[in-house]
TrEMBL record:
The protein's assembly and partners: The basal body constitutes a major portion of the flagellar organelle and consists of a number of rings mounted on a central rod.
Described function: Structural component of flagellum, the bacterial motility apparatus. Part of the rod structure of flagellar basal body.
Primary localization class, coarse: other
One Pfam family, short name: Flg_bb_rod
Domain of life: Bacteria
Domain Flagellar basal body rod protein N-terminal: start-end pairs: 11-39
Keyword rRNA-binding belongs to the record: no
Gene that this polypeptide is encoded by: flgB
Cellular component, GO annotation: bacterial-type flagellum basal body, rod
Protein source organism: Pseudomonas lutea
GO biological process, one term: bacterial-type flagellum-dependent swarming motility
Family to which this protein belongs: Belongs to the flagella basal body rod proteins family.
Record's keyword terms, sorted: Bacterial flagellum, Cell projection, Cilium, Flagellum
Entry protein name: Flagellar basal body rod protein FlgB
C-alpha cells in the first residue's frame, strides 16, 4: 500500500507556494513605493485556486496546445497571468499606484496565512510520520 502525498497533504502545499509568491510580489511593491510610474501588482488567491482546480488533473496541469506537435509540459503554472494590477485608492502625481500602508497590511496578512499553511502542513507531516512508525 503506497502513500499518496497529494492526498495526504491536500491543498496546503499549493497554498504555501502561493503565499511565498505573493510575499515576493508584495515585497516588490513595497520596494518600489517611490519609483515613478510603478504599478502595484498582487495575486488573488481565489482566482488562482479556481484556475488550478480547473487545470489540475491527477496532479498535473492540463495545458492548451495549439498544435499537435507541441511538447506537453507538466507542472507549469500561469503565475504571470494571475498577477493583477492594483487599483489605487488615491492618485499619485508621479503615477505610482503603491500605497505603503495597504501593501504593509497585505504583507502582514499574507505572512499570517503563510504561517497557518506551514503549521497545517507541518501537522500533516507529523501525522504521516506517526502513521509510518505505527504510533
Amino acid at each position: 500500500m503506497s502513500i499518496s502525498f497529494d492526498n495526504a497533504l491536500g491543498i496546503h502545499e499549493k497554498a504555501l507556494n502561493f503565499r511565498a509568491q505573493r510575499a515576493e510580489v508584495l515585497a516588490n511593491n513595497i520596494t518600489n513605493a517611490d519609483t515613478p510610474n510603478y504599478k502595484a501588482r498582487d495575486l488573488d488567491f481565489s482566482k488562482v485556486l479556481a484556475a488550478q482546480s480547473d487545470k489540475t488533473t491527477n496532479g498535473h496541469f492540463a495545458l492548451d496546445m495549439t498544435n499537435t506537435r507541441h511538447i506537453e509540459a507538466e507542472g507549469m503554472s500561469d503565475g504571470e497571468a494571475s498577477l493583477l494590477y492594483r487599483t489605487p485608492s488615491q492618485p499619485s502625481l508621479d503615477q505610482n499606484t503603491v500605497d505603503s500602508q495597504v501593501e504593509n497590511a497585505n504583507y502582514a496578512e499574507n505572512a499570517i496565512g503563510f504561517q497557518a499553511s506551514f503549521t497545517l502542513l507541518n501537522s500533516k507531516f507529523k501525522g504521516l510520520v506517526a502513521a509510518l512508525r505505527g504510533e
